[in-house]
Amino acid sequence: MKIGYLGPPGTFTEEALLRTYTFPQDEAVPYASIPEVIEAVDRGEVERGIVAIENSIEGSVNVTLDVLAFDSEAKVIGEVIYPIRHNLLARSGLALVDIDTVISQPHATAQCRKYLAAHLSGAKIIAANSTAEAAQIVCTHPGNVAAIGTRIAAEIYGLEILAENIEDFQDNQTRFAILGKEVPPRTGFDKTSIICFIYQDRPGMLLQILQEFAYRYINLTKVESRPAKRSLGEYIFFIDMEGHIQDKVVDEAIKCVTCKIDRVKFLGSYPRFKVVK
């Protein structure tokens, strides 16, 4: 079974993948961007994909939400919550005071905003597609540049760690979605994700949607709006809830919501992540 992930090797996505699954290394397929991972699942190039969907510091990964909403039929079939520990990586011989440019994925630099302001306030920030790509660039760059990335990326690309655990909050975590095309069977400890498309703005519309779940005592774990990509002021709503589509109350609630709005897209029912202590 091939599993697509955001590459190149050394990303946090790969770390989360390798900590979750045990399989031959050549079955993990790196892609240059999150949309490419999702598209590979849609095309059948890989049976699974893993993409970041939410971070405890910076919130949702918007590109993941948008591709799943508008450009893909892939389903969420599982989730992984993984602790994120950022490190400042540079070529051997460089010190912290030498660094004038920091390269990383924008979510990573945002999660280290306080550290960068305190220690590298004058440094230029450059975006990369991933933390591993940033490390890959830094290892051959002739200037005084550093990357924010993983410890494994430092090993892969021959970099030194100038500072470790530079994230703004120690409990920094990212939730990754496992993508596929099927709906896993009910386990009794599940989550269901849907998208509500509301193109006609009417008073109390969101309340009417949420009441269907409240009436049935369904706990919502996330409600988030995103632009509907049509005109300013039009939104779609991502809703995560406890339970499985095979649960009668969940199925009834979603059917009732479907009767009230323009469209409901079912993103998947899947086992909730269990923290192993």
TrEMBL record:
ACT domain sequence ranges: 194-272
Pathway annotation from the record: Amino-acid biosynthesis; L-phenylalanine biosynthesis; phenylpyruvate from prephenate: step 1/1
EC number: 4.2.1.51
InterPro entries named in the record: ACT-like_dom_sf, ACT_dom, Preph_deHydtase, Preph_deHydtase_CS
Catalytic activity from the UniProt record: prephenate + H(+) = 3-phenylpyruvate + CO2 + H2O
GO molecular function, one term: prephenate dehydratase activity
UniProt entry tagged with the keyword Protein transport: no
PROSITE patterns xrefs: ACT (PS51671), PREPHENATE_DEHYDR_2 (PS00858), PREPHENATE_DEHYDR_3 (PS51171)
GO terms for cellular component: cytoplasm
GO BP: L-phenylalanine biosynthetic process
CDD domains according to UniProt: ACT_CM-PDT (cd04905), PBP2_Sa-PDT_like (cd13633)
KW Lyase (keyword) present: yes
Limits of the Prephenate dehydratase domain: 2-181
Pfam families: ACT, PDT
Keywords: Amino-acid biosynthesis, Aromatic amino acid biosynthesis, Lyase, Phenylalanine biosynthesis
Entry protein name: Prephenate dehydratase
Organism listed in the record: Candidatus Hakubella thermalkaliphila
Gene: pheA
